[in-house]
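Input sequence (259 aa), recorded before submission:
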Amino acid sequence: MIDGAYAIAGACTGLIVGLTGVGGGALMTPILLLIFGISPQTAVATDLWFAAITKMVAMPVHRRDEGVDWQVVRRLWLGSLPVALAVVVMVAFGSRVGRLDWLTRAVGAVVLVTALGLMLAPWLRSLARTRRIAQPERFKRHQPVWTVAAGALLGLLVALTSVGAGALGTVLLLTLYPLRMTPHKLVATDIAHAIPLALIAGTGYLVAGMVDGSMLISLLCGSVPAVLVGSLLAKRFSARWLQVALALVLLAVAAKTLA
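Predicted structure, token format:
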């Protein structure tokens, strides 16, 4: 039976994911923790599959105009997937990684960093653009290594908290590729990277029996149509104001989670 409250939460999150490519884990996990009172490990485990499936639905729309920068995606995967796989193995074999007492606070801390990153994104991109233009050869020479390192960081954060692949990922991409990432390419590239990352990270929790299947279905009933609508509208207006609003909401969520 579909739970209407979960479906509404899924729809709101799915719309934001479709429009901006961010907000999946950063919004859904705190919603499950703070509003629905779900246990941290179940919230993280279920949200990983929610994010993966929701973004799989959005991907064909964003890919339609060849928006994905696959070279960047491959570099991110080199860092993120091995780290996520290591966490998967530990969770699947009963490690306490998935049952840490401080998991809720870890989610709050990552949400806080994500919110600050969204707020400061234009400044960070401007700083990176200046460095890119002033020292083009040096900047380009270090881009691959920095991108793999950024992927590794995202892989760790996503596998532990389900937060970071979208919102924090876009900030890192803007900083690493200030001239290359147009708004549409940024969203499409970030989504392409996040899908296998969430699937791999979620596998360990699934094997460990932490995913709530009925809750996941209810969330997806709301998110699937909403993410399609958001993805179709993504190129028709600037989503910067929505990112700022999302950042303010995330700041409030982080304060509540860390209180």
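Checked by second reader. The mean pLDDT is 85.
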